[in-house]
Amino acid sequence: MSGFTQQIPTAVRGRGARTNASGRYEAATREAFDDGWTPGDVAPARLVTTISPEKAKLIITRNDSPDVGFSASINPYRGCEHGCIYCYARPAHAYMGLSPGLDFESKLFFKPGAAGLLECELSNPRYRPEFIHIGGNTDPYQPQERTLRVTRQILEVMDRFNHPFSIITKSALILRDLDLLSPMAARNLVRVAISITTLDRTLARSMEPRAATPEKRLAAVRGLSEAGVPVFVMFAPSIPGLNDHEMEAVLARAAAAGARGAGYVALRLPLEIADLFKEWLATDYPDRASKVMSLVRQMRGGKENDSQWGKRMRGEGPRAALMSRRFATAKTRYGLDSPLGPLDLSQFRIPARTGDQIDLFG
Fold first, then answer.
1. Chain-centre distance for alpha carbon 287
2. pTM score, two decimals?
3. Domain of residue 250, residue span
4. pLDDT tens track for 139-196
């Protein structure tokens, strides 16, 4: 009989995932076990963030999901240093031969030629303008953006082409780009969504360790609104038994800060995220871990996840229905239910470049 026992996950300071299990496509697997040492015997190695360039052939990606509200998107980064334990983008790191756990938030990739690729794609004579969403996978304003400015360069291209887009983030860094966002909003070319999952600093620090504090995100809502940029707040994910009781409070604070709309998504636990999330609950919220997972299964037909279109974002059953009714009521109560018209596609123009022939009759 083996003397090895499963090691209880321990928190890594400033990180969301508790382990770094192998991705599902790797030939070899890694598994933590108890070798007799205790955390006090040796100091764990400091986990350093690395970021590497990723060569891309195209920058606009497309999907056919009826659940997300857009078919075209741009993601300047792969992986995310914010380290949100629930992030639905984590499993994509397995395609890189990396772990959806700690690798996802410490081994990052950026697309240095994103702006140039976008300009080429938008300049293609066959291109037809459509609403583009920026940040549909990982946050376009994670900490590395301060120096890399990949998202900033993409916005500059959007501005030159008068191309409509939306952007989602949980970072106050977006306020840096108000000089672009405000004039484009005046031309009905942009909308912004700010993700606010909790007002509890302790929960936020544990669940989203390197993201902006709740107050910073509310300040971003206020700053954008005051600059004339239409702002939505996303209460996502709504986690039963953990943060769902804050739904009304978050919407109230967001409306007071100037938000004009709101949305929510029920917690999703596809693929590796389920184990990562349960490890996190076991270390940070052991007193409610079993209750949270029981409620999740009640919303997912007895399973931990349901990937069916039409169900994956909201869940099903009495608990999911109650969550939906509460959200709709709160949106109405706080004036966040007035629909806005579509962004303006008619302004799209390919800008003239040096050397282009002047059209004397245009």
1. 27
2. 0.88
3. 5-41+51-333
4. 999 999 999 999 999 999 999 999 999 999 999 999 999 999 999 999 999 999 999 9
